[in-house]
Amino acid sequence: FHPAFHWLIRRIQLTREQVVDERVVQILGSRKTYLQSLVEIAKRATHAFSLPAPLFLEEFQLRNRVRLLLQLPERRRSKKLTALSLAGCFGLLAMAGWWSLSAFPLSRPPVAGLQKMGPAEEERTPVSVEGHVMARKLLHRDDPEYPPVAKVAGVEGVVVLRVLIDRGGAMQEAELVQGHPALRNAALEALKSWRWEPIRVDGEAVPASTIVAFNFVLKPGAREPWFGLWIDASGNLWDGERELDVELIVQRARDFGNEVVIRPGPDVPRTLLMDTVESLKQSGIEHVYVPSGAMEF
Questions:
Q1: What is the pTM of this model?
Q2: What is the distance between the alpha carbons of residues 107 and 96, in angstroms, rounded to a whole number?
Q3: Cα-atom radius of gyration of the chain, to the nearest Å?
Q4: Helix or strand or coil: residue 186?
Q5: How far apart are the C-alpha atoms of 1 and 74, rounded to whole Å?
Q6: How does pLDDT run across 5-40, given as a tens digit for each residue?
Q7: Strand stretches in 66-207, DSSP E
Q8: Per-residue model confidence as pLDDT tens digits over 194-203
Q9: What is the dihedral of CA 173, 178, 182, 188, to 10 degrees?
Q10: How far is CA 242 from the centre of its chain?
Q11: What are the residue ranges of helices labelled H in 138-233?
């Protein structure tokens, strides 16, 4: 939370990039080509989804990197200056840490009349309760809605969750034990409205943990109607043996609830798939599904 740490982290990031820049120029033997590459990548930084890794190309950092590259032949840092710089950084870090500890003490001052809680007043460990026992204590439940993406992909199965229930009988948190990724969020959303009769030990309400399972089964004819396409390695979209342009795809998608399913071939790069999905959504298609893993983009 100290401003000096944020400043120091940004300087470390910049210095790391400058060290790499200098090494690249040494390997290439020329700085002109590398400078042109940095500028070209900076122009495309707005399309970060197509880049292979995050880049430190902020305006401030790029300007300083280019300046240093132009000064490489003349710029030499002595060992003495390097040692002084490191000593200064460690000194600043120590002072910032001392100030932080003094400004935000980790111990709480004693309060008059405050007494230490006894064993009965401390937070109790949740009691583990069998699922069929908690089912009899269920006061309210809402069934989960079948996710459209799971219907499109024909995904069925059981989702098992370990649920922590607070003293009042409401879900406090839930952990996935097993289940398909396309179904688990629907199960979690349904659990938020569930209410149980509180578990009591010696007449006192205590937190409890239990297992809850949902069985997602598609009824006959319940699969969502969908407009399916497949994409080749060149980014072309096909409906069977006919290639379609984006305008025709948008028109056809209106007859299927403005939803499109894209099945990528084995050689389609992920970046190309993501670019195609983004292009379709910008054209007005509301939902674009990729059934491999039942993902929606």
A1: 0.41
A2: 19
A3: 30
A4: helix
A5: 38
A6: 778 887 888 888 888 888 888 887 777 778 878 777
A7: 127-128, 138-140, 157-165, 171-178, 195-196, 199-201, 204-206
A8: 999 998 888 8
A9: -20
A10: 37
A11: 148-153, 181-191
